[in-house]
Design a protein that fits this description.
Elements (H helix, E strand, L loop, with lengths): L5 E5 L3 H13 L3 E5 L2 H10 L4 E5 L1 E2 L2 E2 L4 H6 L4 E6 L4 H10 L3 E4 L4 H13 L2 H6 L9
């Protein structure tokens, strides 16, 4: 297995995952794609991710439902990718354990730069990005 940090893309849009896979692989990351909750659970159990990028709306449920089981399997950092730009959505994602919420469409440069900083940070630095009243899980 490659020692590069593992990025798990949980997204059911093939055009989006194809582009993101190229971006992250070109940045030196190992990438897995899961178009559903079931696929993400299987991949995450077998190969925990340094970063999980979660779409909220998946064919078999809410992407946020993956956070606890993937964290229990060893995945470290969760970032929500959503087209929903409402404060309630952001609050729900952060409360579920996401360290960041990125609104689609997000530029390729911003996506790689922002998420790379999360991958490269140690656990104590990741926890410092959480708001004081949030549970860093």
């Amino acid at each position: 297995m490659n020692d590069a940090p593992h990025v798990l893309l949980v997204e059911d849009n093939e055009l989006v995952t194809g582009a993101m896979q190229i971006l992250f692989e070109n940045a030196g990351y190992r990438v897995s794609i899961a178009p559903s909750i079931a696929d993400a659970l299987g991949i995450g159990k077998a190969d925990p991710a340094s970063l999980v990028l979660l779409d909220l709306t998946l064919p078999d449920g809410d992407g946020l439902a993956l956070i606890d089981p993937l964290r229990a399997s060893g995945s470290k950092t969760f970032v929500a990718l959503t087209g929903r730009d409402e404060p309630e959505t952001r609050e729900r994602c952060l409360a579920a354990g996401c360290i960041e919420v990125l609104i689609k469409p997000v530029s390729a440069r911003e996506l790689v730069a922002r998420t790379s900083s999360f991958i490269d940070a140690g656990p104590s630095q990741r926890d410092s990005w959480m708001h004081p009243d949030e549970d860093p899980r």
